[in-house]
Amino acid sequence: MTIQWKGVMPAVTTKFTSNDTLDLVNFEVNIKAQIEAGVNGIILGGTLGEASTLTDDEKIVLIKKTIEIVDGKIPVIINIAEQSTKKAIEAVQKAEKYGANGFMVLPPMRYKADTRETTTYFKKIANSTTLPIMIYNNPVDYGIEVTLDMFAELAKCKNIQAVKESTRDISNITRMRNRFGNRFAILCGVDTLALESIVMGADGWVAGLVCAFPNETVAIYKLATAGRTKEAINIYRWFLPLLELDINTKLVQNIKLAEVATGIGTEYVREPRLPLIGEEKDQVLKIINNSIKTRPTLPSY
Predict the structure, then answer these.
(1) I need a surface site. Which of 3, 156, 228, 255 has the fewest CB within 10 A?
(2) Residue 151 confidence class, pLDDT cut points 50, 70, 90
(3) Separation between Cα atoms, residue 199 and residue 195, nearest integer Å
(4) CATH code for position 278
(5) Domain range enclosing 281
């Protein structure tokens, strides 16, 4: 399947039971809600997916189950976040074997690689597969920035096709366009900057709160790209308090609480994460409940 790097691509959560096993029933409920809302792809195994806590066998189960659920309607993209080049290539080959359509690749984990090491890492991964790749550029959380000069080197790999732009610098979209034109698709990776990024020319949105509010997320994207900016802004202003739950160290717990509130998830997380309690939980629920009470009626789009 060819990936069109555009539109809304949820970085989906992994559903667990109270016994800390995969909850494939609620996982399917959520994936189907995303498809029905009109998302353009599913991204598995990111931070929201608690990938660092999943076993290799669990990752395979999730890939196979997602491929089954989407049934060819949209691509399934696997996040690659490894500590070594060897492990990253193994993860790519394993995911490809089980039906992945493409990859979102982070820089090396833990070790802060320099420019040469980081570009070599990405290029070796790209050369290990023919499937398309999106580079995840998030120096705020991962400590390594993929600079424009590095992208110039990565452009030699034809299957490196897109970037998840999470530098928090909106002007970086214009810098990418000025230097590379449309060589790389650009997808916003920060929920609280999504509409601004789309207006500045981003092709899509790798979203988090979409896990709980898929229709609103897709509506913002489609209205904005149709030039109906005022309508998109009205929804986005309502959405912002929720979107800010994604810019938080407890983003997984926050978003899972929102999924519970909208009926398409559970709050179970895998340790060392723990469900929110007390005042912290009350504050998050207040935001969620207030937003649900004022949930907008979406226009046709």
Answers:
(1) 156
(2) very high
(3) 6
(4) 3.20.20.70
(5) 7-293
